[in-house]
Amino acid sequence: MTWWIVVGDSKNNLLGLRKASIKKKVNIRMQIDLPENLEENPVFVYLMADSYVGLDQYAKVKFKIK
Predict the structure, then answer these.
(1) C-alpha angle with apex 46: 16 to 59, nearest 5 degrees?
(2) How many whole angstroms separate alpha carbon 9 and alpha carbon 63?
């Protein structure tokens, strides 16, 4: 099964997009430009299946900037 990994913020800006074929375990690297104020504009990661409707998942991601 193929999945789309989509990274976006709460203002509907697309920050990153990657297609992945997931077997048992997968490591994905993606470089994105983060919004300046992450507290007011959180970032979400969406996993979208390309062949099954309703399998989509999302998670709010917290970043710590040093």
Answers:
(1) 115
(2) 12
Handedness of CA 6, 21, 19, 34 (dihedral sign): positive
- How far out from the chain centre does Cα 21 lie? 15
Neighbours of 3 (CB within 10 A): 21
State residue 45's pLDDT score. Answer: 87
pLDDT for residue 3 is more than 80: yes
Encoding tokens for residue 19? 């297609």
The residue with tokens 């490591």 is: 27
Please name which of 33, 39, 44 lies closest in space to residue 9, comparing C-alpha atoms.
44
